[in-house]
Amino acid sequence: QTCALPISAMADEGGRQYSEKKLKYAERLENLIKTLPKVLLICADNVGSQQMHVVRAELRKDGQKAEILMGKNTMIKFIIRRAAAENPALNKLVDAIKLNVGLVFTDCEPKKIREILEKNKVVAGAKAGAIAPSDVFLEAGPTGMEPAQTNFFQALGIATKITKGTIEVIKQVALARAGERVGPSEAALMTKMGMKPFLYGIKTTHFFDGEEMVNPAVLDIEDSDIIECFKQAMTRVAAVGLKIGYPVAPAVPHMMVNAFRNLVALTLDTDIDFKEAAEIKDRIEIGRAHV
Questions:
Q1: Angle at CA 114, nearest 5°, toward 110 and 115?
Q2: Confidence bin at 17 (pLDDT 50/70/90)
Q3: What does the longest C-alpha to C-alpha distance in the chain come to?
Q4: What pTM, to 2 d.p., does this model score?
Q5: What is the DSSP string of 106-157?
Q6: Angle 214-107-205 (CA atoms, 0-180°, nearest 5)?
Q7: CA 222, 223, 228, 234: dihedral to nearest 10 degrees?
């Protein structure tokens, strides 16, 4: 099937007509692809519906145009491939759609949209089998738990002692590591102690600028960063030019100044003179007179 085929005529691989709901979804996605060329790919793991509602409300403020679209990857890929018949660059977007991913279509400044997406986070407890977004440590000291509950700590090999009728951890212990799955015993202990160590929110994983897939870290680059890099590059080019005596553009002003200094130095030790050096020679003579 090509993009020329109308949405209403869409059918699956078995030739079955799609439901009205799926056809409306496909029509919406196709319209977003045509009207909002920039796409942020987001991971929404452990993000609740209320949290997503808050983010959508934030995106609608100040006349911003940005829409979040979630759905089945197979359906999303199918529609984007249809559009790729006219714009082959969209195939790069298709290749990045994997696992639990969502799409945020916009024509606004992507950095601002990403800030709105990622600033809304909620505190949550640890669940067994979930990937820990950050390290979690159980600090040394009293836990407030009764001695009868030492089995939680023993199961994890955590050294404890009984102090004033409560369990006390002797030294700091890691209960979870970022990027690793939380164990069932560790999750049970954190729940028992009322620990809610994780912040969950939307995370931007990729950015499609309409032509290429871009690492979202690029959105952190400011104009001042680019200017500073350019200045450093010009400084290095000028240094090389001065060292080898080659008149590259950044080195030419320095070469002219150095040449002028040499000429002035020549007038001080010889009878040669020229108008531009007169003022400098006068200052030198005044300085010598004071000495």
A1: 120
A2: low
A3: 104
A4: 0.63
A5: ESS-HHHHHHHHHH-EEEE---TTPBPSS-EEE-SEE----GGGHHHHHHTT
A6: 30
A7: 140
